[in-house]
Amino acid sequence: MKFIHLSDLHIGKSINGFPMLEEQRHAFNQIIGYMESNKADAVIIAGDVYDRAVPSVEAVKLFDWLLTQIALRNVPIMIISGNHDSPERLNFASRLLSRRDIFISGEFDGELRCVTLQDEYGDVRFWLMPFVKPALVSGFFPDRRIESYGDAAAAALETARLDSNIRNVLVSHQFYTPAGAVLIRSESEINPIGGLDAIDAGLLKEFDYAALGHLHRSQKAGSENIRYAGSPVKYSISEWMHQKSVLLVDMREKGEVITEALPLTPIRDMREIKGKLETLISAEIVSQADREDYLHVILTDEEELVDPMGKVRGVYPNVMSLDFENARTTVDLSSIRAGTEPIEALSAFDLFSEFFLDAQGSVMSNEQAGIIRELLEMEEMH
């Protein structure tokens, strides 16, 4: 069975006032082409369909177009909500749409939804896990202590009735991080203080493949079969060196999974250029790449400039941001401390979790977290 793994579409997103709808449609057309040329049996969208909880009319129309194009080709689609989506809005008409093989899980209702597809090797079970928070999940498990994102994910995952003889695929939108590894995050992602949303990727080891969303760079989370698809379009200047792609997953018999990154080419690339104003707008430099690209410009001129943005945009019309890097802008920030108010609002367990992630580069295991909770409880009693 072959399926396309997508995530973080962020339909309707704008970057520094530049709408990305045209780039998104261009990427979606390439994805549909890959779906056809590789004869994909299914498409997975692992969260953050929209960029906002209340998407624009244009964003809704584009997503409607995408779903229609896939459905017209009789390819099943599985969709979950991400942290940017409104679960209730995404869930609208989900039961009706499932009759057309469009399976949407916008809200966690106490157990994971399972969609079963078949191929020559038998059943493949897709477990759909929308974005979950501790407060949401705890209501379904009143007898269980759920304080962290890891607790919430563990409780939700345990509702999947896994048969080890059958191939199982998880679709999830959370920040899973493997022990001893550092994952690459982007400015366009929502990053809680100290990685408090981090979850041990070891929770996913029983699945034959974990189709993840949330991180905007395509990457594995420890195992070859636990992967973030990444966003199909560059959504911040921090992503300018990323090669955007879509994942083609080929599941054969139990234990054999092959992934391939299929490249996506933008209408306009996103680049960073750095140097003196007169050099950057010279014909020699301009001719080296597409002047229509989205640009982050860093000017190194020491002297005062008159209307630098106007001069740069006179040559590069799609400049997204402009910064200066010179003697006047070089400031030592090492002595500046962050405000204490956010730290004071954190619990002792959250503070230790933050310290552990920073020191070890990974989240605590369930056993380690249990020990810390016991120690903190003992301290409170005394």
What does this structure look like?
The chain is α/β, with parallel strands linked by helices and 382 residues long. It contains 12 helices and 19 strands. The chain has helices at residues 21-37, 57-72, 87-90, 94-97, 134-138, 149-157, 277-280, 283-286, 308-313, 341-344, 348-360, 366-381, and strands at 2-6, 14-15, 18-19, 42-46, 77-80, 102-105, 113-119, 122-129, 167-173, 175-177, 198-200, 209-213, 219-220, 226-228, 245-251, 257-263, 270-275, 294-299, 319-324. The strands form 5 sheets. Strands 6-5-4-1-15-16 form a 6-stranded mixed β-sheet. It has a 6-stranded mixed β-sheet with strand order 7-8-9-12-14-13, with no helix packed on it. A 3-stranded parallel β-sheet has the order 17-18-19. α1 (21-37) runs parallel beside α2 and α11 (348-360) crosses α12. The longest helix has 17 residues, at 21-37. The radius of gyration is 23 Å and the shape is globular. It starts with a strand and ends with a helix.
Name the shape in a single word. Answer: globular
Structural class: alpha/beta
Average pLDDT metric: 89
Main sheet summary: 6 strands, mixed
How many beta-strand runs?
Answer: 19
Q: Considering DSSP H and I runs of 4 or more, what fraction of the residues is helical?
A: 25-40%
Number of helices: 12
Strand order, main sheet: write it out. 6-5-4-1-15-16
Strand content: 15-25%
Cα distance spanning the termini: 58 Å
Count of spatially separate domains: 3
The CATH class designation of the largest domain is: Alpha Beta
| CATH architect. name of the largest domain | 4-Layer Sandwich
Within CATH, the superfamily of the largest domain carries the name Metallo-dependent phosphatases
The oligomeric state of the chains shown is single chain
- Return Rg in Å: 23 Å
Low-confidence stretches: 331-341
Which fold name fills CATH's third level, the topology of the largest domain?
Purple Acid Phosphatase, chain A, domain 2
